[in-house]
Amino acid sequence: MAKLKNIYIFLIIFFFYLNIGALKSQVYFNIRESFDGSNTLEFCKDIMTVPDGYVIMGGFAGASNFQYHFGVLKLDNEGNTVLRKIFYSDSLRNVGLGRRNGCLNKNSASNSYYNVGLSRRFIDEGLGVLDEGIIAKFDTAFNLIWMKYFRDKSDPVDSSFFFEHAKILENDDLIIAGTLYKGNSSTSLLLKADSSGNELWRKYFESGSLNQGLNVIPTPDGGFALSCYKWVPQNNTSHNYLIKTDSLGNEQWRRFIGGLYKDDPLYLANSPDSTIVGAYAYSDYSPPPPSSNSYNRIAVVKYSLQGDLIYEKIYGESILHRRVSSITPDNQGSFVVSGYNKFYPPEGGNQYEGSLLKVDNNGDFVWYRQYRHPTVSVSDNYLEGVIHAPDGGFAAVGEIYGKHPDPVGQDIWVIKVDSMGCINFDDCWVGEKELPLPQNKTAMLRVHPNPAKDRIQLDFGPDELHLSKTLMLYNSFGQLRQTLKLEPGLSEANISGLPPGMYVGVVWCNEQQLGTFKFVAF
Question: What is the pTM of this model?
């Protein structure tokens, strides 16, 4: 028996340190960077993985003249800047690239990169402007090869042509979402171009007078899904509609998504089960004008290729100006949603913190975190784009709006978190970065024994013990391994089917999270 006990002790220690090592093998960083390095207003919404790190492409503007330029930052896997390129606009033209996450694309041969955006050219001796959509092509060192310009064919000067988002297709053609502004109206745009930047076709879509084409993805049937956004300023309302087209951009169906108030734009992602997934900020309430406020929660929807709603799930508490900025899949069939929301610290005031939400392919909640740069206490932190990282974690990019007494200035912000959304190993399970959606202040979750072999005992608070609950167990890489039903009064769970390792437990009741805990199974 003593020998068997020693073996158990060895296994406990072995699997504990094995899982600690797995988490520590993931890279963490939280950095503040700049394209220009001087007193400029910097912005970035797009991040891309490359074999030896990450590429960020965004823009900056002079703090005095607001002339827009764009730049490239390349980071190694540890978050160190290894390449910085700046492309200055001349006095007659402003250029902006990467208006949404996912605009930067690599072709199939991996020997060139593409991005889309907009160009504003001053004409008639500076008295007029010509706004054009642009496609830019770069080599592997991010030298600019060419830039192609697109405009409204019938009325180019009295209109604005913006490219918002693009995806590269298997044959290296590009499918582009954008907007045509003309007079007091705007129309959603879907445009296809070949790898040389030659236009193949364009289609327009609208619902009412004010529309934007924001996000596009190719679908497995050869068609496309286009996210469109419409708004009614006089009512302080806005809404999303999803359009599915065939391979030539002809509309097959459209679906209106969201509620009655001021929803935020819908961002799209391909799902491994050949469906369309989107995320947006759902508005619970927006006061009538002149207010422009809205109280929002995070929403995730899934549609079949035939337009059938598979699910729409809404997460968290309603917060003033909560925003969703992108959604990305991981390699396990789950999704991570980036964004930001107002945070009210105990000492008073308010500021914005970046956020990441992870849900599985069924839309079930996995984890939620909020982030800020470690040097700021009163400044605003915005996360715009997120991408799945090679080590199983996630990298995200956005901006810091520095306010006194913090370091001032509008700079680029880049974070790298692990598979559980933790900003560093010491912050992995506790602290303000782990915020359940929504929080239940009466939950008292403790687990014993820990480590455990066959069963665990959960200590619930007096308000939770009598409830019917669901226990979801995730491994250290965020994968759901077991779902258990806990009947009222039951606090013991059978874990005999779990492989040895470190696990996170999440307890739910009536679609609300009661709390979380961690333990080691052996």
Answer: 0.80
